[in-house]
Amino acid sequence: MAKMRKIATEEAWSIPEVAAELKKVANSPTQALDKLLVKGIYDAQPGADGYDAMDFLGGLLDVQDKRLSQMDELGVDMHLLSLTAPGVQMFDADTATDLAALANDRMAEICHNNPTRFAGLASFAPHSPKRAAKEIDRAMSELKLNGLIVNSHTYGEYFDDPKFWPILEAAEAHDACIYIHPRGASDTLKGPLQDYGMDSAMWGYGVEVGTHAVRMMAGGVFDAFPNLKICIGHMGEAVPFWIWRINFMNSRAQSANRAKKTERSMEEYFKDNFVFTTSGVEDDLALRYSIDRMGIDNVLWAIDYPYQPMKPAVDWMDQAPVTEEERHALYHGNAERIFHIKPLD
Ligand code: 1WB
Ligand code: MN
């Protein structure tokens, strides 16, 4: 295969200051569902069962060492970095605001020092919406970051709530796509997700983010912000597979005055205002369906490093049943367009 630019778009990263704060969360009385995973990663007891053997923390804190050498080995040109889940959203609003700014500064430094290898999504503290909007201005205008990351709910609240709309207004004004990444389901959603490992990537994450996406569409967010772009991971968190039913049943519920009246249909919002990545779903049929159903412009490649290994994600996309034109779009063209990454000459 001829050399093709490869930009991976959901690549997790962290800084020691955020890791230290998450270790405090692991030892706090919080009942948030994220605590299970946060404990395993940031407060791992040596030798105990859990994720410590996979050394996720080492992978998150590293850029120059294992990450870049694997990228070189596999021909991955660029990681679009984002502060890993749950980001700053479990901290109090002041700590969250400060740590988001610090993480953005560090991220910008990495991107500016390695402009062909790293791009980045800026963090913000949703629970302080006005300060978040200012940080979005700073991150996009001064730091020249490539878009935004949020880890789904903040203290159980979602972006259909107008309290968060200063954030959406700033994002839309900068054409900054907001990547809604998973975290543990909110306290009112978590009940049956607490057992059998269902709290995180196996199931709960998709339920949480899929719910967030549908709340935004059905809540009329895109009537207020028609040009807002949202990105979700994991092959669209099941929304593409359900879209016919979401669309049909929302339209029926609108007719019966059980749902909010919206200017466009759910399917139109999903096609016009959302894009989604392949992160953590290396499945030929799911990819083919996603492209055929939602359009090739709406699907981007991602690895989900370090939670997913790099090599299988590259091997899969190299051989996935798509045309070469589609492979270009998946591997880099859509990422360049959505995340303002300069195309190669
Ligand atoms: C896992 C996956 C853990 C993701 C994460 O922690 C994130 C996991 C924040 O596989 O356990 C992810 O981004 O998909
Ligand atoms: Mn991820």
Structural class of the secondary elements?
alpha/beta
Number of helices: 14
Bound molecules: 5-methoxybenzene-1,3-dicarboxylic acid, manganese (II) ion
Give the low-confidence spans.
none
Task: Let me know the number of strands.
Answer: 8
Average pLDDT, to the nearest integer?
A: 97
End-to-end distance: 19 Å
Question: How are helices and strands ordered from N to C?
Answer: EHHHHEHEHEHEHHEHHEHEHH
Helix percent band: 40-55%
Largest sheet: 8 strands, parallel
Which strand order do you get reading across the main beta sheet? 1-2-3-4-5-6-7-8
- Provide the gyration radius in Å: 19 Å
Q: Briefly, what is this?
A:
The protein has helices at 16-26, 35-42, 56-61, 66-74, 93-113, 129-141, 165-173, 204-218, 221-224, 239-255, 266-273, 284-294, 310-319, 324-338, and strands at residues 7-13, 78-83, 118-122, 147-150, 178-180, 230-232, 274-277, 299-300. It has 345 residues and is α/β, with parallel strands linked by helices. The two termini are 19 Å apart.
How does this structure look, described?
Strands 1-2-3-4-5-6-7-8 form an eight-stranded parallel β-sheet, sandwiched between helices. The chain has helices at residues 16-26, 35-42, 56-61, 66-74, 93-113, 129-141, 165-173, 204-218, 221-224, 239-255, 266-273, 284-294, 310-319, 324-338, and strands at residues 7-13, 78-83, 118-122, 147-150, 178-180, 230-232, 274-277, 299-300. α1 (16-26) crosses α2 (35-42), α5 packs parallel to α6 and α6 (129-141) runs parallel beside α7 (165-173). The longest helix is centred in the N-terminal third of the chain and has 21 residues, at 93-113. The mean pLDDT is 97. The relative contact order is 0.13. β3 (118-122), α6 and β4 (147-150) form a beta-alpha-beta unit. It is α/β, with parallel strands linked by helices and 345 residues long. Residues 12, 37, 84-85, 200-201, 280, 304, 307 line the site of 5-methoxybenzene-1,3-dicarboxylic acid (1WB).
